[in-house]
Amino acid sequence: MAGEAFLNAAGVEKHGNDTIFSWWAKFQEAKSAGLPAVNGTIGALLEDDGSLAINKAVDSAIRNAPEQEIAAYAPLAGLPAFLDLSKTLAFGDAREELEKLGFHFSSTASPGGSGALYLSANNFLEKGDSALLRDRYWGPYKGFLENNSLDYVTWPLLPKQADESHPYFAKLEFEEKLEMLCSKQSKVMVWLNDPAHNPTGLSMTPSGRMACLESFVDSAMNNPNVGHTLLIDSAYSLYADETHAWADTILESVENGMMWPENLLISVAVSLSKSHTIYGLRTGALVSMHPEKEITDRLDTALCVTARQTWSATPRVSQYGVSELHSTAEGGAAWTEERDRLKQLLDDRRSSLVSECKELGVPINPTMDGFFAWIEVDKPVEVAEKCAAQGVFLVPLTGGVRIGLCALPSGAVPKVAEALSKALG
Known about the structure:
By secondary structure, the chain is an alpha/beta fold.
């Protein structure tokens, strides 16, 4: 095999292109050929004219940064002001209340949410362990885990028999997989992308989040020698109706007397790519909470060392600009106004797609928030190819087809529903 003399065993096994970017390339080819192509592939928010949607308040803050803030290294863990901001971005108004209740927070800056996920994969499981994911997940999860010598197991996105109290949380299956992992590993970690799940746009209900947290806490208490980390991937949450849904659930549970076992850690992977429309500046953070300061201090040290040994330091200018923007009431309001405009764009597209699909009998999955919608199909590549033949480009993934509402022009939504209807017919 070409390159085998140079590549190690892991490198030899790496094949192919990223599925999302390969289907984006198909769209670009069709567009370049002058065809009336519709883009539902890329995971970046576009205006209706196809240009990248930019939060103007963030753009202005970045451009007004002093030259030293643009050119200099950031501290290895991140700028102090940014680390403080990241804790608020992760936990919202609940942060202050949780601090009053005795909780402490750690934060390490990272190259986007991807870097935050890498930090957790590199530190919160032993090599050879498996993480627990829902069976519909963002594809790069697999690579982040494999590159840290980890595997994964899944539980269903939706329960086989919906429970009225938590219709979007497969509680029994979740508990079964947790129990299985606890019987084999000294540490368990769940990656849960909620609210505004990629690739479906699903958001769990408050009762579903509460049931999930209770199951996780019960597992930690029943397995006191097994470290339990629940990581919330919040990449799209600031475009959800409940922007800090998990923080609110955690605070409510603690205030209602929930026991917090020593072997329980809750982390949040923060990404500024979507929320602040600075995808290419690769800025995020891994934020964790625990009632013991010695633990959060130790996490700060370990994760900072990992960052230093992996990417050195996260870009400084984005940390500085965003921190400055949110340091004043005026700046925060300007960001919120722009964020609300972009959220409305997504909400309008989603509402239109759900309505059009209902009218045409297209069985779209439950979708509430964020950048995407989803249709569960047995042959996703075949369905995507049939849609592409009609000029509609979507992304086939394991178990279904992802519809990038973030990229779809509002006027093209009916065409997408029609293409799906014909592809399924």
